[in-house]
Amino acid sequence: MHVYEVNLKWTGKSNGILSSTILPKEIEAATTPEYLKGIKGSWSPEHLLIASINSCLMSTFLTLAENSKLEFVSYESKSLYTVDFINGKNIVTEIVLQPKVVIPYSQKPERIKHILEMSKNVCLIANAIKTPIQMKPEIIVS
């Protein structure tokens, strides 16, 4: 069993400070500017959610790549999600992960795509989300 603690302290208006007793940095979080009294330039719950999914994909990919003895030169990922107002509620209607992996000629792009898909399927955070997650990988052979 693993327990992760994150603390939040309201600092006024619609923002607060996220912290953890085991992490050195705090993060300012606020309501996104798209909503009433939102604040520009701060991490919103929406940003933090998609960042969690994106970083979980990377962490899982790195573990599976190492276990599979997969070689790659670099990894980066863009992530997007769309919120629509449906039946009086804001609903996350689309999540898209766009990992970009650079591999040496000795590796097969199909193998990378397979490991990325496996990573998405076993990612703890992705599995906690009810919205289906689309994967649009870009594999570059260098």
What does this structure look like?
This protein is of the alpha/beta class. 29% of the residues lie in helices and 35% in strands. The protein is built from 3 helices and 7 strands. It has helices spanning 45-67, 109-122, 124-127; strands spanning 7-12, 15-19, 27-30, 74-86, 89-103, 133-135, 138-141. The strands form 2 sheets. Strands 4, 5, 6 and 7 form a 4-stranded mixed sheet that branches. A 3-stranded antiparallel sheet has the order 1-2-3, with no helix packed on it. Strand 4 (74-86) and strand 5 form a beta hairpin. Helix 1 packs across helix 2. The longest helix has 23 residues, at 45-67. The relative contact order is 0.15.
